[in-house]
Amino acid sequence: MAETFDFPFELGAGGDETPRTRQVSFGDGYQQSIEDGINTLQVSWGITISGDHARIIAARDFLRRHAGVRWFWWRPPLEPEPIKVKCKSWRPVHASTTSASLALTLERVYNPGA
Description:
Elements: E1 14-19, E2 21-25, E3 31-35, E4 41-52, H1 53-66, E5 72-74, E6 83-86, E7 90-94, E8 99-108
Antiparallel strand pairs: 1-4, 2-3, 4-8, 5-6, 6-8, 7-8
């Protein structure tokens, strides 16, 4: 069963949504565009988690366990339901002797597995 990434993150998280399309151009300047396949909306979110070392280590260990190849559930801001995502890289920052942060990018995946 897939896990859920439910670590609280800082306000100001930013998402990117890019429809995947194909386009053909004709000599007279006319262009036609179509969606490229199914599940054409590519979605990614950059988030930062801040807190004590224990929270950051727990989040980092979660990401290491998934190794950038296994998907997990995450609910983005402005969405009512969680989506399947992968995280291919993250960046821990040691802020002080008691606090740290973890910056990461979550990318939506379309996987038929439950």
